[in-house]
């Protein structure tokens, strides 16, 4: 019968599950899906992580960092698009892994996606809080210091954590609660709210590019790569690039690994395949179009930002609005902060929208309790219980953990997910060449192999602490799987029942 840990879920069974009553509404078209992708991608990457990437890792070479990270995402996006057209159900990479690599790998990627979306949402909520405080500060309103940031932060120059004097980040908790309420209400309401936020932030992004270009000082781009073009490390040991006094690897590639979080979002489109009207066509369109649009905008904004302000003078918490304040445009600070709030809100919405759908797919397979994570609200048709739990988890993380820790933890989890999806495309092409593929990734096996290699390169460019956190997270996941998921798996029960029936028939 084979090892049950590597039992694969047949494509026919995946498609059959969508015919039941416990499924989501199909109301999303290609424009809405693309809007969700743009909503998830543009936000924290432009309005927050450009500051961290330029100030701490790459300097003006951040523009090249975005190109490298974007190229790695293109390879992964093509693989995501192929799978999304083949298996248009909720679950994204988790579902793809179950159909190709087996249950254990599916669990690993599902648990990893929780790291991506839930911890990613906490990172976004953290960024939203800083821009909100920057915005109300324009009007002379300031929150008590004890309620503004996480209680501790990591100083890369000193190499250790230090207390901030704050208790928790109150604005991050409030925005998380508001988004959770909207998500429980329904996908249509969520998509409409997202489209409004996307429209606002795109206007502001074009404003940043169109106005900021007149305040560029070319001298700020020299030296273009103050930390070099390297940044490759292996479990914290620098192989190619500079090192900071605390041992952190620096350089353009290290910057690409840090800002990779900015691209998280195109893959979230695939989690909504079950809610797409024509998923075999519309989901690939949504994935690829949103990625291309956002890559171009990222490169433009990072070039403008590092041209306006010397990289070592960029504010890592609110880099774009602060840059305009530094060049004497305080009125622009108001518009940019408003656009950042709208943009980051849409990112938070889409990421928190995606997380419960991954949990829904895992619940359908019995790997997590179906009565809770698989519960669909009778009126709103949303996975309301897991949405509320996600909101609580995100609020807790955003309130207590600093931005640097959250962002890099999410990056390594996402990169691992991309590696597995690229590998799964190769396996499916070999094992099931006859399967219907409305969208086919071009130049296979070259594209999946390049996707695997480029994502591994960026993973190895992250500090060793991120690998430690990833291993701890995966170890916790294995404990849950072997204590619960393995024994409640739907496939495992079916195999047991089939074996029991076969034994009975032989005895008869």
Low-confidence stretches: none
Instruction: Give the helix/strand class.
Output: mainly alpha
User: How would you sum up the global shape?
Assistant: globular
Q: CATH homologous superfamily - what is it?
A: Amino acid/polyamine transporter I
Number of strands: 6
Tally the helices: what do you get?
Answer: 18
Average pLDDT, all residues: 82
Q: Supply Rg.
A: 22 Å
- Determine the N-to-C terminus distance: 21 Å
Profile the largest sheet: 2 strands, antiparallel
Strand portion: under 5%
Residues in helices, as a percent range: 55-70%
Query: What number of domains?
Result: 1
Q: Going across the major beta sheet, what is the strand order? A: 1-2
Q: List the secondary-structure elements in sequence, H or E.
A: HHHHHHEEHHEEEEHHHHHHHHHH
Please give the CATH architecture. Up-down Bundle
| CATH class assignment | Mainly Alpha
CATH fold-type name: Amino acid/polyamine transporter I
Keywords:
mainly alpha; 66% helix; 18 helices; single chain; Amino acid/polyamine transporter I; two-stranded antiparallel ribbon; 4% strand; 508 residues
């Amino acid at each position: 019968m084979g090892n049950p840990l590597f039992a694969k879920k047949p494509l026919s069974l995946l498609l059959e599950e969508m015919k039941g009553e416990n499924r989501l509404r199909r109301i999303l078209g290609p424009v809405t899906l693309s809007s969700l992708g743009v909503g998830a991608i543009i936000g924290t990457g432009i309005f927050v992580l450009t500051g961290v990437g330029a100030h701490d890792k790459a300097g003006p070479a951040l523009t090249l960092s975005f190109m490298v990270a974007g190229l790695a995402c293109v390879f992964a996006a093509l693989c995501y698009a192929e799978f999304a057209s083949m298996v248009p159900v909720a679950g994204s990479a988790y579902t793809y892994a179950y159909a190709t690599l087996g249950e254990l790998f599916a669990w690993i990627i599902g648990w990893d996606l929780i790291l991506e979306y839930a911890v990613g949402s906490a990172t976004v909520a953290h960024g939203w809080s800083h821009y909100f405080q920057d915005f109300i500060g324009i009007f002379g309103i300031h929150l008590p210091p004890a309620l503004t940031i996480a209680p501790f932060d990591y100083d890369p120059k000193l190499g250790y954590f230090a207390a901030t004097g704050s208790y928790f980040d109150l604005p991050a908790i409030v925005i998380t609660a508001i988004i959770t309420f909207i998500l429980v209400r329904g996908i249509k309401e969520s998509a409409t709210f997202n489209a409004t936020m996307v429209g606002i932030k795109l206007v502001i992004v074009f404003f940043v590019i169109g106005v900021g270009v007149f305040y560029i000082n070319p001298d700020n781009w020299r030296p273009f790569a103050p930390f070099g073009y390297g940044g490759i490390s292996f479990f914290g040991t620098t192989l190619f690039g500079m090192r900071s006094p605390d041992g952190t690897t620096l350089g353009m590639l290290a910057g690409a690994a840090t800002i990779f979080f900015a691209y998280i979002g195109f893959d979230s489109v695939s989690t909504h395949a079950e809610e797409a009207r024509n998923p075999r066509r519309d989901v690939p369109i949504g994935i690829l179009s949103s990625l291309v649009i956002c890559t171009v905008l990222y490169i433009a904004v990072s070039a403008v930002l590092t041209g306006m302000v010397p990289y070592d003078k960029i504010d890592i918490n609110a880099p774009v609005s602060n840059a305009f304040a530094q060049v004497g445009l305080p009125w622009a600070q108001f518009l940019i902060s408003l656009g950042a709030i709208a943009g980051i809100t849409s990112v938070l919405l889409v990421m928190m929208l995606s997380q419960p759908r991954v949990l829904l797919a895992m619940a359908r397979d019995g790997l997590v309790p179906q009565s809770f994570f698989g519960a669909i609200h009778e009126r709103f048709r949303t996975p309301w219980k897991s949405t509320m739990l996600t909101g609580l988890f995100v609020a807790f993380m955003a309130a207590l953990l600093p931005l640097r820790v959250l962002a890099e933890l999410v990056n390594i989890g996402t990169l691992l997910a991309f590696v597995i999806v690229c590998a799964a495309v190769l396996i499916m092409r070999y094992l099931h060449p006859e399967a219907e593929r409305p969208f086919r990734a071009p130049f296979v096996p070259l594209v999946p192999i390049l996707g695997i290699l480029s994502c591994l390169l960026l993973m190895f460019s992250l500090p060793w602490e991120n690998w430690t956190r990833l291993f701890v997270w995966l170890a916790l996941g294995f404990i849950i799987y072997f204590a619960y998921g393995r024994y409640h798996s739907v496939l495992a029960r079916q195999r047991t029942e089939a074996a029991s029936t076969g034994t009975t028939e032989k005895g008869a």
